[in-house]
Amino acid sequence: MEYLLGKKTAKISLGEPPIVQFSMPEGEPKPSVEVAGEYIKAACCGVEASLRISVEGGRTRIWKRLAIDEHVLGLGEKAAPVDRRRSMAVMFNFDAYGHTLHMDPLYVSIPFAIFVQGGKAFGLLVNSPAFAVFDIGIREYDAVVIEVEDRPEIYLIFGPSPMEVLEAYAEITGKPFLPPRWALGYQISRYTYYPQDYVAALVDKIASEVPLDAIYVDIDHMEKYKVFTWDRRRFPDPRGLVAELHEKGVRVVPIVDPYIKAEPGYRLFEEGLRHFLVDKDDNLYLVRGWPGPSALPDFLNGKAREWWARVVEEYVKEYDVDGIWLDMNEPTNMAPFEASEWERIRALAAEGLRPGPLPKPELLRRTAAGAVHRLDDGRRIEHERAHNAYAYFEAMATYEGMAKAGKRPFILSRAGYAGIQKYAAVWTGDVVASWEGLRETLMAVLGLAASGVHIVGADIGGFAGYSDPELVVRWYQASIFFPLFRAHKGKEGNDVEIFALPTRYKEAVVEAIKLRYKFLPYLWHLAWEAHLTGRPIIRPLPLEFPDDEDSYRVNDEYMAGPHILVAPHLRPSSAKRPVYLPRGAWIDYWSGAVHLGPTWVEATADLPIYVRRGSAILGDGFLMIYGEGRWRIYHGEGPDVLEVEASGNAVELKGSVPELDELVLLGAQYGEAEVDGIRRNAVRDSAGVRIELGGSARRVVLRA
User: Fold this and answer.
1) In the chain, what are the helix, strand and coil shares in percent, each to the nearest 5?
2) Which value, to the nearest 10 degrees, does the dihedral of the CA atoms of residues 472, 478, 481, 487 take?
3) Which of these is catalytic: 327, 394, 459, 588?
């Protein structure tokens, strides 16, 4: 057992080079480490971590004690409560159609956990894309047992806070990509929109009522499901359609699957023959995909990634599309599936029981089991050892292709691994359109955020099945601050576009979308902050309040950055709900009522939103401040930096000051103001006062 030290990090190597290579952060402080046989103990930043690591053949077992008051965050996309304590998490990317609460595994495997005790934290990254199981106190009440079918790299990452662990994790696995700004706007999708004139008409109908930034086209836009093609009967002029939508301010994101139809004479198939997965005898390995028998690119091979990046570059240039949507990239083999296993899990979940994961043989049946990857260092490894990294390397190659085409890359990937945040956004896949599905997908989104994935979201309205109008409204409201704000629906579901909803529900959805755009500059600031620091855009409460024991038990609220708490209604016919507010002062965004936490309050707003004292939030044409403090706010493409200071009865704006229509001071009761020496009225409302700025302003002085 060898180890290497970096800033707040100890990396333990077990003798084999990793498939996914990460960097060690440089600088101080470095942990102290003691090794005695199978035991390793490390300490840094006032936090200690002890592991027992045993290796037998090609398998590794990692054991640590689970304290009676210890919490566990992270572990990627899981349909389970935010605190992973008393759960078993399988790391094996799986096409989990119609998933609901406690179903495991799902599409994204991130073998990274944050252990928190008494508010102090360390992270454990088990860098292997092979099959693994994290048992958090199930088989052994007082222990965490991790079993990996590999010899992984193991990173101990110290905080002392969970947020600082995430910042160090981003230094290791990669800082989050900065999306194009439009990618934070409202996006629509359906399995599947066509033909061409219908798509254009649909955009016109929706954009006439709400802002719209992007539309996605699913697999039926392709010719016989051949990737990078267009069905010219349905889309006779795809380049013309894209140009038309661009004139309307709407971007186009086509789907791309990894399936390359195995068809002699098909250019992409014949071009890629040197770059596809093979079997152990070097014969072409085929799976069943949407086009039928299909080859899969070997994305773990550098030459294959270069080829794929060239194909993406040519495609983006030819059609001028704005993003790429990577689907089915666990990868999924559409082989016969034992539906009885999935139904068994559904039945247990419906009874309120926590079902065990799908058995490993069933998981292997649905992927490229037995295929062989040819790595750049000459190694040949079976797909099972590299499975979870497949989508990571596909996203890497796709990102490079878009960048070479001259676009700021936007990639949306269904599957992923640790480090996916460098290249792609992630969504929670084919969730059931139900109230339980809504509650579960919020947990999955927060789990991804606590695992370093910053651009994350869910299919608004639910993908699989019928979505009743009230559910659609609540899904929009729950997603209001999700970094990815995309509506998507399966073929078998009802129409849930805003024009298809009954009027009362349509009006509520329109209000939710407009509220999203009102706070879009705040989300853009958070996207920049994530890109620069690794802090997630949305956060489960324990990331902000790690020493608050109650925060670990809250699965139906979230923080948008450090300043806004959102507590959506997640049950039918709900007119009120209990809301937990952690320590500090909180003001109800709608009523202006102030609450001192920690406390529980009964919320009656249609979308309960609370602003934390000590906040400055840049919105669309306004700056909203609650309390005193100093803040740095990112805006623009640079980014430009606005520096804000609120102290006493004065507000100072320095640096790059954007055009602002008004200043909103929550909880304030002033009657007038001077804006750069010019007297202005302060208009009072239930939440505070509003002062007209009329453009750029540098100093605002308030008077009673």
Assistant:
1) 25, 35, 40
2) -20
3) 327
Q: Quote the crossing angle between the two packed helices 302-319 and 238-247, to the nearest 10°.
A: 70
Cα dist from 584 to 178, 286, 323, 369, 580, whole Å: 31, 58, 41, 52, 12
The confidence band for 415, taking pLDDT boundaries of 50, 70 and 90, is: very high
Is 643 among the residues known to form the active site?
A: no
CA distance 628 to 634: 19
- pLDDT number for residue 337: 61
pLDDT band at 345; cut points 50, 70, 90: confident
Q: How confident is the model at residue 696 (pLDDT cuts 50, 70, 90)?
A: confident
B/e letters for 12-35, b = 16+ CB within 10 Å, e = fewer, are: bbbeeebbbebeebeeeebbebee
Catalytic hit among 430, 544, 556, 662 = 430
Contact 135, 88 (CB under 8 A): yes
Determine the residue type at 298. Answer: D
- Residue listed under structure tokens 């505070």: 688
Residue 327 is a catalytic residue: yes
Q: Which of 483, 487, 484, 492 is nearest to 510 (CA)?
A: 487
The SS3 of residue 445 is helix
Q: How many CB atoms lie within 10 A of CB 540?
A: 27
Containing 662, the helix (H) or strand (E) segment is: strand 660-666
624 strand-pairing partners: 617, 664
The tokens 């956060």 sit on which residue?
A: 539
User: What is the model's pLDDT at position 412?
Assistant: 98
Rounded Cα distance, 322 and 214, in Å: 9
What are the φ and ψ backbone dihedral angles of 694, each rounded to 5 degrees?
70, 35
Residue 283's alpha-carbon distances to 6, 163, 286, 287, in angstroms, are: 43, 47, 9, 13
- Considering 231, 313, 330, 440, which one is annotated as catalytic? 330
> What distance in Å separates the CA atoms of residue 373 and residue 370, rounded to the nearest whole number?
10
Q: For tokens 């878009």, name the residue.
A: 402
The Cα–Cα gap between 70 and 115 comes to 7
Question: For this structure, is 430 an active site residue?
Answer: yes
Residue tagged 């590299």 (tokens): 386
DSSP string, 96-147: -TTB-TT----SB---EEEEEETTEEEEEEEE--S-EEEEESSSSTTEEEEE
